[in-house]
Predict the structure.
Amino acid sequence: METIKLASYDRVTELKAFDNTKTGVKGLVDAGVSEVPRIFHHSSLKLSNSKPLSSDLQHITTIPTFDLGGRVFEDETKRKKVIQGIKQASEKWGFFQVINHGVPLDLLEEMKEGVRGFHEQPPEVRKQYYGRDFSRRFLYLSNFDLFSSPAANWRDTFSFTIAPDPPKPEDLPEICRDVVLEYTKHVMKLGEFLFEMLSEALELEPNHLNEMDCSKGLLMLNHYYPPCPEPDLTLGTSPHSDSSFLTVLLPDQIEGLQVNREEHWYDVPHVPGALIINIGDLLQLITNDKFVSLEHRVLANRATRARVSIACFFTTGVRPNPRLYGPIRELVSEENPPKYRETTIRDYVAYYNAKGLDGTSALLDFKI
C-alpha cells in the first residue's frame, strides 16, 4: 500500500495547487488544516540536532549581546571593548545581538505590528499582491524557492528593495507603508555604524567597508510564521547562510532561530529590545574567511500565535551593479592568499537564488 501512495504523490501538481491559492501558509491555517501537507515535509536529518550538548555547555556558548550606547561612545575604552567583542563574535559565531542600538523601541513594536497587520488582512486583499515576478517593486509569496527546494517551509513573506533605488510610497501597501519607510531609515544609519565598527575590528580605516558600498543596498524580507499543527515534520526556514554583506534582524518574542556551529544547533535567545546581527556570505568572501557567515534555520512555530520577523539585508541583490568584490587587499598576504575569486553581487545572488535553500553554502562555488 505504501508504494502505491508514494507513486500517486505528484509533488509538482501539489506545489502548483498550493501556489495557485495565492494565500500562502496562512491560507492553510485559516482553512483549519490539522496535518502538514507533504510538500512541507522535511527529512528527519534536516530536522534533527546533529550533535547534542550538555545543558551547562549550552549556557556557556550563547550568542553574545553588545550595548552600543545609543551609537555614541564617550568612553573610548568602552568603544574598543565593544569592537573587540564584535570582532570575536564575527570570527566565532557570525552572529551577535545589539541593544541601545539607536532605533526607537516603540518603532520596533510598530514595525512588527505592521508586518503582522499585512499578513492578517483578508485573503482577497493579500491575493492582489501575490506572485513570483521578482522584478516587481513589492512581492508577497510563500517560499521564493517553492519549485526548486527539496521541501517547502511553513512561512509566508513580503519583500521589497529599499536602497539604492527606494520604492515610491504608492508601491507599498498602506497598512505598513509609513512604519516600513521610517524603520528602514533607522536601519540604514545603524548599518553604516556597524560597518564602521566591523572595519575597525578588521584593523582597517573606519570608513573602509562603507566606501566599498557594503551599506549601499538594502533588501527587506518580512516573514510570517503561522502556528504549525505538526512542527516536528517541517521547518519555518531551511538551513542556509545569507547572501548579503550583513543582516539586521528584528524578531518577536517567539523564539525559533537557531545557528549551526560545529555541527550543533544553538538557540538564539530572545533579548527584549535587541536586534540580531549576522555576517553574510559576501562579508565572509571579502574578509577572506576572517568573519564567518554561519548556517542558520528557523524551527516551525509551536506557539498558538503567529511569529513575525523582519530581516534587512545589506546587498544590492540582483539589481545591476558592476562593482567586483574579492578578498580585501589589506587582509591577504603570501601566508594568507585569496580564497575566493572576484564576483559581482548580482552574479553571486543569482547563483544563490537559483541554488535555493538546500543547506549548502553558495560560497563553495566561488572558492579558488
Q: What stands out?
A: The chain is about 30% helix and 20% strand.
